[in-house]
Amino acid sequence: MGTVHARSLDPLPMSGPDFGVHGDDAELVEVEPEAKQEVLENKDVVVQRVHIDGLGRTKDDLLGYEIAEVFTATNLIDVMKKSHEAREKLLRLGIFRQVEVVIDTSDGEDALSNGVDVTFEVAELRRLTGSYNTMVGNNEGSMVLGLKLPNVLGRAEKLTFQFSYGTKETSYGLSFFKPQPGHFDRNISINMYKVSGQFPWSSLRETDRGVSTEINFPIWKTNHTLKWEGVWRELGCLARTASFAVREESGHSLKSSISHAMVIDTRNSAILPRRGALLKMNQELAGYTGGDASFLKEDFEIQLNKRLFWDSVLSTSLWGGLLVPIGDQPSCIADRFYLGGPTSVRGFSMYSIGPQSEGDYLGGEAYWAGGMHLYTPLPFRPGRGGFGDLFRTHFFLNAGNLCNLNYGEGPRAHLQKLAECIRWSYGAGIVLRLGNIARLELNYCIPMGVQSGDRICDGVQFGAGIRFL
Amino acid sequence: MPNCLFLCATLVHYAGPSYSNYTFHLFHSAAEPWPENAALYQPLKDDQILLSDHASSLAVQAYLRMCNLPVQVVCRANAEYMSPSGKVPFIHVGNQVVSELGPIVQFIKAKGHSLSDGLDEVQKAEMKAYMELVNNMLLTAELYIQWCDENTAKEITRPRFSSPYTWPLNHVLAYQKQWEVRRKMKAIGWAGKTLDQVYEDVSQCCQALSQRLGTQPYFFNKQPTELDALVFGHLFTILTTQLTSDELGEKVKNYSNLLSFCRRIEQNYFEDHDKDSITSSTSRLSKGSFLM
Fold this sequence. Notes:
The structure holds two protein chains of two kinds. In chain A, a hairpin with a 5-residue loop joins strand 13 (295-307) and strand 14 (313-325). The two termini of chain A are 36 Å apart. Chain A has two domains: 46-124, membrane protein fhac (Ubiquitin-like (UB roll)); 129-466, membrane protein fhac: a member of the omp85/tpsb transporter family (Porin, Beta Barrel). In chain A, strands 4-5-6-7-8-9-10-11-12-13-14-17-18-19-20-22 form a 16-stranded antiparallel beta sheet. Chain A has a three-stranded mixed beta sheet with strand order 1-3-2, covered by helices on one side. Chain A has a two-stranded antiparallel ribbon with strand order 15-16. Chain A has six helices and 22 strands. Chain A is mainly beta. Chain B is α+β, with helices and mostly antiparallel strands. Helix content of chain B is 54%, strand content 6%. Chain B has a four-stranded mixed beta sheet, covered by helices on one side. The longest helix of chain B is centred in the middle third of the chain and has 28 residues, at 121-148. Chain B starts with 12 loop residues before the first strand and ends in a 6-residue tail after the last helix. At the A-B interface, strand 10, strand 11, strand 21 and strand 22 of A face strand 1, helix 3 and helix 7 of B. Strand 21 of chain A pairs antiparallel with strand 1 of chain B, so a sheet runs across the interface.
């Protein structure tokens, strides 16, 4: 928290700024404590000057917008509140290590009797910061090196470089982020990356090298993102024993797509929210700006949370998506949807639902998945108020379906196809919240509606991730 | 493809009878007869396939016809990447995928068909030696002319190789392949050769083959073997492909017994089936419309 120093609002002695004023202050406090309190709350003040001390490479015009609100304050409490909000905005820019607020009476020739000066004492972040992590995943370990250059050109631009060197694959990415001065929520970012992944459920190996540009802007309560992405995708078989259907997808392709995403998020937290709702809608159109891949892809995500009796939360979510290939080319395995696993329909193995060939899952062009969860605190509430609050027990019911559609048949046939052979599961487990980003789950699952070809994971299933059904 | 950043350890059970690919042995495949739907995969015939790939593919097709095994030729733009070894052609028989002539001959032998069973040990060694000669000389010369001769590479090879792809991927893939081939040439010592030296090598190779063939119908007298298929594949492709200059074809035309050898195999094995025979393509080829 920032520190706020407030001195007496009585006019300074005629001889000029004088540290002797401390003595007067102390006397005032002792003799008339109640009068001072009254002064603080009721006295009207005018904010005459707002300074920002400690700027190095940051350009002045950037910060004018963030601190503009402070000038509109009318009494001291208001000044303190608006200064605090301005401090939050300055920290949000991501260019300062710390921000302290000093509120003082005005001095100088044009000082008013009730004038106030607000000073923000800032410490800028270093020009270059680095981080080093190690990550352990499915049979793979990797070393991740990150470099960040905050505030590169003085207007809160950020340049980030990340390099991941693993036992199996190597990835790297470079990203440039620039917010609009005065409207931090409107920003543009440009990324270049090379990402490799191995997907054992499809016996597929994929390497993507791409460039993307995205613009984020809020409209009323919604957040929109417009993005263009150009990706060179290289697909290959992970093992000699891959099925022929996956072998046929090997090779190179170029995807150039424009996408639009809209997010409305009124939840109080992204992980284990207690109230609020989330709506995400995403459209992607590929093929009209070049490249080989040509399709229209839609997907959406809805989540509703409601607090019930006794500190428990009822959460329902619904996901769905549709991929329509344009032209006579069939869809590519890298664009299709996958279903199943500890982060999606629990009780089934990772992405192991739906169309498959010789044990390799090929994904589908349309899917839906729904979940209903009841989160309660741990029984008998161990560790209450501390560590125990990170855990929740949860009871769940998940359902979903994934299939390919023959688009000549019409929507009625499609709905019918998605409605038959529904896979579903139920069970209970424990959830651990990791910060505000991720969660771990350990569940006992009972899968039902299993179709031939699906791979199940009945019994205990462990999952970690950031996005769960 | 969905991003899976975090670890997911699952205890896996199979829902039904498990189907495992790992237990497929060669013995298992030997027991199965040759299926009706066997397929041979190669790059696109009209626009994409290169001289060296066409020669290899034709050699395998000739061998299969000599063994009287039906196969359907399927053209795919990504055939090179589909192949388990990265080289075309490859055949998809039942559940097995086998690429390149050598392994294909072994695979077919395991199924009980072979053309070189009647040869004695000395002849088999000789056959292997001549096949090595063709691979090391003719095939390498074809690759050199395609990729290391800048004229041919710019006008014919790079545009053909990258024809199925859109900009800028087409340039990236063509140059990537060119660097790869040139690196390989450097490793085997061909980088320093001039085009004339390469033509000279081709001529010497043809002379050796011509001498071995003599007046016989096939290399080992009456019956064709895999060597005949390989030589036919390369020579026929060289004769019927138009490059920037005709010199390569001229080197082969100097030996009349090789010309009649090619014609003989074409007549005996490729003129029976009208639809996918190469005679229809030869008439196109000799008109010069088949650019390599």
